[in-house]
Write a structure and sequence with these properties.
Blueprint: H1 3-14, E1 19-24, H2 28-43, E2 47-48, E3 57-62, H3 67-86, E4 91-96, H4 102-111, E5 117-119, H5 127-136, E6 141-143, E7 163-167, E8 169-170, H6 181-185, E9 189-190, H7 193-205, E10 210-214, H8 231-239, E11 246-250, H9 259-267, E12 274-276, H10 284-289, H11 296-309, E13 314-321, H12 328-341, E14 345-350, H13 368-391, E15 397-405, E16 411-416, E17 421-425, E18 434-442, E19 447-451
Parallel strand pairs: 1-2, 1-3, 3-4, 4-5, 5-6, 7-10, 10-11, 12-13, 13-14, 17-19
Antiparallel strand pairs: 8-9, 15-16, 15-18, 16-17, 18-19
Helix pairs in contact: 1-5, 8-9, 9-11, 12-13
Bound molecules: iron/sulfur cluster.
Residues 172, 174-176, 179, 181-182, 216-217, 253 line the site of iron/sulfur cluster.
Length: 454
């Protein structure tokens, strides 16, 4: 049965202009999955709405990375009970990483009777059938089986008209001891090079100016392909596609950051000179407990090689503070690496226990007060470093892609090739093109300047 066609008939019978509301939580890859799903639903004849109360179909695309995130999602699902009471015809579905966990799917089934169906991270292909059943049968369904991904149903729908997300791989084989991703997203599997390059051509032919290649662990891309294709080769081929656009990628793992990859980034102007390299901790003892598979020394060798090959390349990172067993000495090691690496930005988290991960069973002596004070000390140090780093850009000229308005009246905002937020006086017609900007002022989170090429 062509579910999509049949669904179109059914929903237009229920409402002449059916609408869909999709809310995605979590990482960029999960948001991209949500957009791909939205693209398929729009192709079924729905229109998108930002108003959950008037929607004919509601999709909550969940994230399971931290227990706090889950609590937030349960809050949102609970609230939908009132929407269903007002509009009994609305179809409510829950998907994403949380529903890949069997016990969570069961909990949703038993606790939130207003949810019609849920599906996991492998079952996007089953969505039309699940929706059809929800429209024709009044019974709860859940499909969180692990299906082999062939990515053939990936939809290129994007929320932006300037920047586009292109997933290149799914899953992760690293099993960092604090992380739930390998359990809810499965083993690593990569899309074919030809499919990814064709997506990039389609998007850039349609005017997209920046492509973000996405994966839980992009630099182990291609290991599952036959024959295997290194990530550096994919980047090289993508950077050789003609056109006025640039390429970024997220997120690499330090253990797979090889020199050939850094050499390719240095060689091709299309590849943005900004690398996000999650460190997590500067202590080798903690890195081992996290099962990160590198040391602070090997991490710094990568940083030094990046700086040697691309002196203006910026590096940002992720740091977990208060991992179980972290001592004051371990934390000092993290501060030492932060001073040495000179990150332009740190995404920082206080460790939050995640049931189902190895770290959840580790003894944790540090108090919440100690962890918060460590976080404060780390952010204070990083603010000092960022203030220094950003000040070095004053009087320099950067290439910036403006993609929206700033919170400050009369300014537009964008990101430079180095990944730094830049604001400048300008109007909407300046958005969506690469502009040369001379930097006149620096803050510790962004730069300000004047556009040179109007
Ligand atoms: S690399 Fe580690 S932290 Fe990242 S998704 Fe994989 S298991 Fe999680």
């Amino acid at each position: 049965m062509n579910y999509a066609e049949t669904i179109k008939e059914i929903v237009t019978r229920i409402s002449p202009s059916p609408t869909v509301y999709v809310h995605s939580f979590g990482c960029r890859l999960n948001v991209s999955d949500g957009n791909s799903l939205l693209g398929k639903i729009l192709d079924m004849g729905f229109a998108e709405t930002e108003d959950v109360n008037s929607a004919s179909l509601i999709i909550i695309n969940t994230c399971a990375v931290r227990e706090n995130a889950e609590k937030k999602v349960y809050g949102v699902i609970g609230e939908l009970k009132h929407v269903k009471e007002k509009n009994p015809d609305v179809i409510i579905a829950v998907c994403g990483c949380m529903t890949q966990e069997k016990h969570v799917a069961e909990f949703i089934k038993n606790t939130y009777r207003h949810v019609d169906f849920c599906f996991g991270t492998f079952a996007y292909k089953k969505f039309p059938e699940l929706l059809y059943n929800a429209l024709t049968k009044n019974e709860f369904q859940c499909d969180n089986n692990e299906y082999p991904n062939d990515f053939s149903d990936f939809n290129l729908y994007q929320k932006s008209v300037i920047k586009a997300d292109v997933p290149i791989m799914y899953g992760c084989d690293n099993y960092c001891s604090y992380c739930i991703v390998p359990y809810v997203r499965g083993r690593e599997r990569s899309r074919e090079v030809s499919d990814i390059l064709s997506d990039i051509r389609t998007l850039t032919d349609n005017g997209f100016k920046e492509i973000l290649l996405l994966g839980q662990n992009v630099n182990s891309y291609g290991n599952t392909l036959k024959p295997p294709v290194p990530f550096s080769e994919l980047l090289k081929q993508a950077a050789e596609i003609p056109g006025d656009f640039k390429i970024r990628f997220m997120s690499p793992h330090p253990k797979d950051m090889r020199k050939d990859l850094i050499d390719i980034i240095a060689e091709y102007p299309k590849l943005c000179k900004s690398i996000h390299l999650p460190l997590q901790s500067g202590s080798n003892r903690i890195l081992e407990l996290m099962n990160r598979q590198y040391t602070a020394e090997t991490y710094m060798e990568i940083v030094k090689y990046i700086r040697k090959k691309m002196p203006r390349c910026t590096i940002s990172t992720d740091i977990i503070v208060g991992f179980p067993g972290e001592t004051e000495y371990d934390f000092e090691e993290t501060l030492r690496i932060i001073k040495e690496a000179h990150f332009y930005n740190i995404f920082s988290f206080i460790y939050s226990k995640r049931t189902g991960t190895k770290a959840a069973d580790l003894p944790d002596y540090a108090t919440a007060v100690e962890k918060t004070s460590r976080m404060t000390r780390m952010l204070t140090l990083q603010r000092e470093i960022a203030t220094e780093t950003y000040a070095e850009y004053v009087e320099k000229t950067l290439t910036v892609l403006f993609d929206g308005s700033s919170k400050t009246e009369g300014l537009i905002a964008g990101k430079s090739d180095e990944g730094i937020i830049v604001e400048a006086p300008g109007t909407f017609d300046k958005i969506g093109e690469y502009r040369k900007v001379r930097i006149t002022k620096s803050h510790n989170w962004a730069l300000e300047g004047v556009i040179l090429n109007f």
